[in-house]
Design a protein that fits this description.
alpha/beta, Ribosomal Protein L25, Chain P, 2 domains, 6-stranded mixed sheet, 6 helices, transferase, RsmE_PUA-like, Ribosomal RNA small subunit methyltransferase E, S-adenosyl-L-methionine
């Protein structure tokens, strides 16, 4: 199996399909929801190039042998083991209202996030009660999977269990750089020294903003408060903006 460097596989327009497991062999079968999408929506035909991945870095490049009855038969041409990108991007996202949570995950996934942490911040309007955690996580994880296919990403970002502020602070001990997006921060994002490797965490507050206590606690844990610019972004888009800025200074070179 060949390995693709730098954690990426250059997209060439070929659609990407995700399976829980990619079996060995010279011919793969893509069925179920993925097969229906390939045959009934994309209307793929014999000879077209496709990619099949397991969402954990294994990618198969192939051509269509057959496409009918919501089932795609793929002739395997090559297999790649795509390593994780560097640096690792972690988004700590306060729970937004309504569909803005899945939107935040969708945008962050397209812009390269590797791990998303749902955060129950003090001023969150939305609260995932015990009976709603599974439903909320399912929506976020579904958004990450769909956006990975859209972006032709061989690795689907992890969406963790929701965390409290205390749990997020504990997590920061394992990152190399933590940035708290805050409109009142004096330090601009452009002035931050960004590491080329390791783990970078971006913390995004809720619609009501961060409390002074949260800002102080994150700073005590080693995080830096930064502002992206003069504009105040929505909680659902701020993380994506920060990830794009980080990628421009690290992965997109």
């Amino acid at each position: 199996m060949s390995e693709t460097p730098a954690g990426t596989l250059q997209a060439d327009g070929a659609p990407l399909f995700l399976l829980d497991e990619v079996p060995a062999g010279d011919v793969l079968t893509v069925d179920g929801a993925e097969g229906r999408h390939a045959v009934d929506v994309l209307r793929l035909t014999v000879g077209e190039r496709v990619r099949v991945a397991d969402g954990r870095g294994l990618v198969v490049e192939g051509s269509v042998l057959g496409a009918e009855h919501a089932t795609l038969q793929v002739h395997v041409l090559a297999r790649h083991d795509v390593p994780p990108p560097s640096p690792e991007f972690v988004l700590v996202q306060a729970l937004p209202k309504g569909d803005r949570g899945p939107l935040a995950v969708d945008l962050a996934t397209e812009l390269g996030v590797d791990r998303v942490v749902p955060w129950t911040a003090a001023r969150c309007v939305t609260r995932w009660r015990e009976d709603r955690v599974d439903k909320g996580l399912a929506k976020w994880r579904s958004a990450a999977r769909a956006a990975s296919k859209q972006a032709r990403r061989p690795r689907v970002p992890e969406v963790t269990e929701p965390m409290s502020t205390r749990q997020v602070i504990g997590m920061l001990a394992d990152v190399d750089l933590a940035l708290v997006l805050h409109e009142q921060a004096r330090q601009p994002f452009a002035a931050v020294d960004i590491p080329a490797t390791g783990t970078i965490a971006v913390i995004v507050g809720p619609e009501g903003g961060l409390t002074d206590g949260e800002v102080v606690a994150f700073r005590a844990a080693g995080a830096q408060s930064v502002r992206l610019g003069a504009e105040v972004l929505r909680t659902s888009t701020a993380g994506a903006a920060a990830l794009a800025a980080l990628a421009a200074r690290t992965r997109w070179r």
